[in-house]
Amino acid sequence: MSRTDDLLKIRSLLQERRRTTETAQSGARRELAALKDQERDPEYEEQAQAELADYTLSTLIEAQRREIMLIDAALSRMDNDVFGECVDCGNEISLDRLEAMPFAIRCEEDAALHEQETREAARHVGSLSL
Fold first, then answer.
1. In angstroms, how far is CA 118 from the centroid of its own chain?
2. Cys staple from 5: which of 1, 28, 53, 118, with CB 3.0 to 4.6 Å?
3. Tens of pLDDT along 49-107?
């Protein structure tokens, strides 16, 4: 199978994942709306459970929103014929990496370097606040 065929397969998987995520997000939004519309019992324990459910659903919806954004960005890169190119070095990102992480924008080497730089920057900022 050619790289082009592999990328088309990844596109199809991304499109399906987007549809599934949108469906799940719609369900979570309905649940959250229903939860907010319920009359609240003044019982503390029930209120705490409702607040926890509210927080959990809100967090889930936000994670789904971010995933849809990542999928849309990957599909846009495909439309612009830059999907699978490392944003740092311009080399091809391996198909194994793209299949495992279709949102990847860096090759393994540059991703590792970027993560190391990010950790070092976070440590530096953390040491300044001490």
1. 19
2. 1
3. 878 888 999 999 999 999 999 999 999 999 999 999 999 999 999 999 999 999 999 99
Helix-helix angle 3-37:44-79, to 10 degrees: 150
Closest CA to 28 of 58, 68, 50, 49: 58
**CATH number for the segment(s) 3-128:** 1.20.120.910
- 80, two tokens: 């612009």
Instruction: Return phi, psi of residue 28, to 5°.
Output: -65, -40
- List b or e across 47-84, with b for residues whose CB sees 16 or more CB atoms inside 10 angstroms: eeebeeeeeebeebbeebeebeebbeebbebbeeeebb
Classify residue 24 as exposed, middle or buried by CB count within 10 Å of its CB (0-12, 13-18, 19+).
middle
Phi, psi of 105 (to 5 degrees): -115, 0
Place of tokens 């519309």: 37
Domain boundaries, the chain: 3-128
